[in-house]
Design goal:
It contains 13 helices and 33 strands. With 636 residues, the protein is α/β, with parallel strands linked by helices. The strands form 9 sheets. It has an 8-stranded parallel β-sheet. Strands 2, 3, 6, 7, 8 and 9 form a 6-stranded antiparallel β-sheet that branches. Helix 9 packs antiparallel against helix 10 and helix 12 runs parallel beside helix 13. The longest helix is centred in the middle third of the chain and has 15 residues. The relative contact order is 0.10.
């Protein structure tokens, strides 16, 4: 019989198709729930315990099968409610154990980390093993120079626009450039680079805003209903999407419906792009007046007090119709023909429809979701939020946040970079902020355990973006740390997002947005770079392995500053091992808990990425030396 400690490690279940017969059932549907553990464990009986009609009712499970030294128990449950929350009870002759998404305990646990099955949730299945490539369009590729902004073509907020004629020149800080320094990237250029992206292994694009706007970033939209003419206009988007879909690639667009720009047609403060007879600012009796928060003196509420970004007011039913309810609304238009986009990314979604006494967020997000799903049931709903936002991830609002909280922030902290939010505080920024492996494991495990598995599968994992300095541009971060961070990014539960140019070792600088928005370095021989090879290999693994699409996740090692976690099915086992340690460590991982076939004796000289390693599998354990700062990805 296996030791108590080891048999407990063999206990596993999740919400995937391997343990729930239909992970996304309809209300009233009967599903079969399963759990597995060592066949020779001391467990005598197994129960699944979940609330039905308000009462917790343990249901005894039957042993259904044995495979690879593991016994599988199952029970059928009919679900009538919005959510079925459950844990498992394992009974031995000496003790009763309780198993939830955080692990196995010798005491009764609360329900906060229970397994959860959502009914009537429509999961965007294509996202599960997607590799996104985020593009800041103005800085990616100039495909048609005739579209480019010309010097002095217009002024915005009193500053004349400039055409940057040297693509390789370094972007200036905001205080000088004022976000009107145009390099000439456009949608034509993106379309021309589809072969490059496809060869890299990308399966989906996320584009920062492309709608008509005055600045480089275009979050200060002028008109939600047209693509910026300097990007090629509406037809350029149609052409791009048609070509992407022909190549089996998806695309989501980015929009801020929390605020507009002051020059937006609806607001139109200065009459720069539209006559002053249009818009709310100069016309108190206009329909658009109720779209914003105006005071009697014509001052207005702006996002975080930025005067060029007036906040939208969702007490207005007319505004709701124009943004998401009407057939030709902002949200619906771009999902429909001839565009047929595959989803939306919503800027500053965390603060949207929230203004002191007006807290409308949980009222409007289900409406927006319904609007999107009416047009495209597989449309992906991605929302910007940097913190714990599990309140929005219950199947009826967002599909995923920009998962800074569950990927970018813990990964960067593991490698010693001061957390983004801490870095803004003079009282905290100089205090060492590196977290060890146990802290990383607790952060990730506790976060995931509060989510349904079907939500974990579509988390939008990222390391870099247009809003945070690129990890590899930090002079304090080593090449080994960058490589380890990338491996973790690709192998955590959820999809993966690459930020344009990371695979090209793009240059940049720290501590401002302009530093992470450099033009793509097409003058490099990108495909010969070591970092490109790493990204390309991981793209292929991510998009072809069922373990990263529907498989399990388990922390298997967390000591000192060495972390190991597994992604697996009954037939496939991947192990990510990453060190941010200053010393070499000898570690042992009990691979037998995943099945006898993974525990066969072997000597391993290279990992799945071709990295030399000193490792052996013996007596059911993977034993290896992890040099200081190194990382590996194994397939057993």
């Amino acid at each position: 019989m296996q030791s108590m400690n080891l048999w407990q490690k063999s206990v596993y279940s999740d919400g995937s198709k391997f343990y729930v017969s239909n992970p996304c059932p309809k209300k009233g549907e009967t599903v079969e729930i399963s759990i597995r553990l060592f066949s020779d464990s001391p467990v005598q009986s197994v129960f699944v315990a979940g609330k039905r009609n308000g009462a917790t009712l343990p249901e005894k499970m039957k042993k259904k099968s044995e495979k690879n030294g593991l016994s599988y128990y199952s029970a059928k449950i009919q679900i009538f409610e919005k959510e079925f929350s459950y844990k498992f009870i394992l009974v031995t002759s000496e003790k009763i154990y309780y198993y939830d998404q955080t692990g196995i305990y010798g005491h009764i646990t609360d329900d906060s980390h229970n397994f959860r099955i959502l009914t009537d949730y429509v999961q965007p299945e294509w996202v599960k093993n997607a590799v996104f490539y985020q593009i800041f369009p103005e800085r990616f590729c100039n495909g048609d120079d005739s579209l480019s902004v010309k010097d002095g073509e217009y002024e915005f907020d009193g500053v004349p626009v400039r055409q940057i004629k040297d693509w390789s020149s370094v972007p200036e800080d905001y205080e000088k450039a004022r976000c009107v320094d145009f390099y000439g990237g456009d949608l034509v250029g993106i379309r021309k680079k589809i072969p490059y992206l496809k060869k890299l292994g990308v399966t989906a694009l996320y584009l920062n805003p492309i709608f008509y706007a005055a600045t480089v970033h275009k979050y200060d939209c002028l008109d939600y209903f047209h693509v910026d003419p300097h990007f090629g206009g509406d037809q350029a988007l149609v052409d791009l999407i048609e070509e992407l879909h022909k190549n089996g690639m998806k695309i989501i667009l980015d929009v801020s419906i929390n605020h507009t720009g002051i020059a937006n047609r609806w607001f139109n403060r200065d009459g720069t792009f539209f006559p002053k007879t249009e818009g709310a600012y100069n016309n108190p009796d206009s329909e658009e007046r109720e779209y914003y928060f105006f005071n009697e003196d014509n001052s207005y509420h702006a996002w975080f007090g930025v005067p060029t970004l007036p906040t939208l007011n969702y007490t207005s039913e007319k505004l709701r119709h124009r943004i998401w309810k009407d057939k030709d609304s902002v949200v619906k238009k771009w999902l429909r023909k001839p565009f047929c986009t595959d989803g939306w990314r919503f800027d500053v979604a965390d603060v949207m429809a929230r203004k002191d006494e007006l807290q409308l967020h949980h009222e409007i997000w289900p409406q927006i979701r319904s609007s999107i799903k009416e047009e495209n049931p597989q449309g992906y709903i991605l929302a910007e939020d940097w913190s714990d936002c599990t309140e929005f991830l219950n199947g009826d609002e967002w599909d995923s946040p920009m998962n800074y909280f569950g990927s970018c922030r813990p990964i960067r902290s593991f490698y010693g970079q001061t957390d983004f939010f801490i870095s803004h505080s003079p009282e905290m920024r100089d205090i060492p902020a590196k977290i060890d492996a146990k802290a990383f494991a607790a952060w990730i495990q506790n976060y995931l355990a509060r989510l349904p598995y079907v939500s974990q599968q579509v988390l939008f994992n990222l390391l870099d973006s247009h809003d945070i300095s690129r990890f590899h541009n930090d002079p304090k971060i080593s090449t080994d740390a960058v490589h380890g961070a990338i491996k973790m990014l690709f192998t955590l539960p959820g999809c993966t997002n690459m930020y344009y140019g990371d695979e090209a070792d793009i240059d940049g600088r720290m501590h401002n947005n302009e530093g992470c928005r450099y033009p793509m370095p097409w003058n490099k021989d990108i495909e010969k770079l070591e970092i490109y090879g790493l990204y390309s290999k991981l793209c292929h693994i991510k998009t072809t392995s069922s373990a990263f699409c529907d498989g399990g996740f388990k922390i298997v090692y967390a000591e000192n500053s060495v972390l190991g976690f597994a992604r697996f099915t009954s037939d496939e086992l991947w192990l990510t091992v990453a060190s941010s340690d200053l010393e070499s460590r000898q570690i042992n991982i009990p691979v037998a808990v995943f099945g006898q076939s993974f525990a066969e004796n072997a000597v391993i000289q290279k990992d799945a990425l071709g990295t030399a390693v000193n490792a052996v599998v013996k007596n059911g354990q993977l034993s290896l030396t992890v040099p200081a700062g190194k990382s590996f990805l194994f397939k057993l």
